[in-house]
UniProtKB/TrEMBL annotation:
InterPro entries: PCD_sf, Pterin_deHydtase
Recorded catalytic activity of this chain's protein: (4aS,6R)-4a-hydroxy-L-erythro-5,6,7,8-tetrahydrobiopterin = (6R)-L-erythro-6,7-dihydrobiopterin + H2O
Source taxon at top rank: Bacteria
Lineage: Bacteria, Pseudomonadati, Pseudomonadota, Gammaproteobacteria, Thiotrichales
Species whose genome carries this gene: Thiothrix nivea (strain ATCC 35100 / DSM 5205 / JP2)
Protein name as it appears in the record: 4a-hydroxytetrahydrobiopterin dehydratase
Gene Ontology BP term (one): tetrahydrobiopterin biosynthetic process
Family: Belongs to the pterin-4-alpha-carbinolamine dehydratase family.
Length: 90
């Protein structure tokens, strides 16, 4: 199971319990592709984070479903990071 120590650039929050990360992109097209990939991830996992975005930035906020962050939240964060890893490797 992934945990916050293995996730880069994620900030944790106590009230409400959750975590967030801001992603920056070089163009609107890259931002849209990330959002499309994130939507596919949400559909596949059934987890829907809170999103704020503009032309070249996306902030993903994952809120705990219980009193603490668990496997679902850490797993979704890790898979969100993996979206970018796959783009770099491609």
């Amino acid at each position: 199971m992934a945990d916050i120590r293995t996730l880069n650039n994620w900030d944790t929050h106590k009230l409400p319990v959750g975590m967030s990360r801001r992603y920056e992109f070089g163009s609107y097209e890259e931002t849209r592709q990330f959002l499309d990939d994130l939507a596919s991830l949400s559909e596949r996992t059934g987890y829907y984070p809170s999103l704020n975005f503009n032309r070249t930035q996306v902030t993903v906020r994952i809120q705990a479903e219980a009193d603490d962050l668990g496997m679902v939240e850490y797993g979704f964060a890790a898979e969100t990071d993996a979206i970018l890893s796959h783009k770099v490797a491609a």
